[in-house]
Specification:
Radius of gyration: 24 Å
Helix content: 25-40%
Distance between the termini: 84 Å
Order of helices and strands: HHEEEHEHEHEEHEH
Structural class: alpha/beta
Shape: elongated
Number of strands: 8
Length: 261
């Protein structure tokens, strides 16, 4: 090719720039695919399963009606419903069924519980609004939203559509201090993950009159029935006592704070 037939310099520059942009776009696309695949694999590996015996006891409980929906598990009182409800968001990579036994006491007391099934087993990836879950129990009049660990962090972000907030070994990342919302924080004395110190550090993000309860002998895993977690403390409270404590604290909260809120 002689000099007269060669592409002008500005065309060569545009061609080179187009190739570079194409390489960058292809590289970013590959990185995105790898990231998505990695997240999906991570979300499915190491999911903490519900312990069979506590779950079997809930499923056999004649006082509780269970509906297993694709979006959530609905635990409803067979008799004596109070009109109160709790949308409960599980912790990261914990089987939603693992919370059924610990929450069964408040169901027996009349509170409907909707345990969500987070997308990819991680609450942060679940962008559904609260009414995607409250609509599963249309007879409930008053809704609290809450969750365990990472699920509690997500619950704080959904409070605009609820009447109350209940945190289970968790704390907020967004500021609710001026919301005026009734709030209950249930912490574990021996929690090695959402430690009492971390919960205390995040205390200013909750309303000034929030109820702060530290349960003696409870660890992070005490709030569900899925076994021990790495990095957690060793609980000294029994499962029966933990269930009784949760039931008492949540029932009292609904009766004294939510009902008058």
């Amino acid at each position: 090719m002689d000099a007269d037939s060669a592409p002008p310099p500005h065309r060569r520059r545009r061609s080179r720039a187009a190739r570079i942009i194409g390489w960058i776009a292809a590289s970013l696309g590959i990185l995105l695919i790898v990231a998505i695949v990695g997240i999906v694999i991570y979300s499915q590996v190491g999911v903490m399963a519900a312990e069979p015996e506590p779950l079997a006891a809930v499923k056999a409980d004649p006082a509780i009606s269970i509906t297993d929906d694709y979006a959530a598990i609905v635990l409803s009182p067979v008799e004596g419903a109070t009109g109160d409800g709790l949308v409960f968001i599980p912790g990261a990579k914990v089987d939603p069924w693992a919370y059924a036994a610990k929450l069964s006491g408040i169901v027996e007391s009349g509170t409907t519980v909707v345990i969500t099934k987070p997308w990819l087993n991680l609450a942060f990836f679940d962008l559904r609004p609260l009414d995607a879950f409250t609509s599963l129990a249309p007879d409930v009049d008053t809704w609290a939203v809450g969750g365990h660990s990472l699920g509690g962090v997500r619950a704080c972000q959904l409070t605009q559509d609820a009447e109350a907030l209940i945190l289970f070994a968790s704390y907020c990342a967004n500021d609710l201090s001026t919301s005026g919302m009734p709030a209950l924080s249930l912490a574990g004395e021996l929690d090695g993950l959402s430690t009492p110190a971390k919960i205390a550090d995040a205390r200013p993000l909750l309303p000034a009159d929030a109820d702060m309860v530290e349960i003696a002998g409870a660890a992070h895993s005490s709030f569900g029935d899925y076994g021990l977690q790495p990095g957690d403390g060793t609980p000294t409270i029994s499962d029966a006592d933990m269930t009784e404590t949760l039931t008492s604290e949540i029932d009292h909260f609904f009766q004294t704070q939510v009902a008058v809120g």
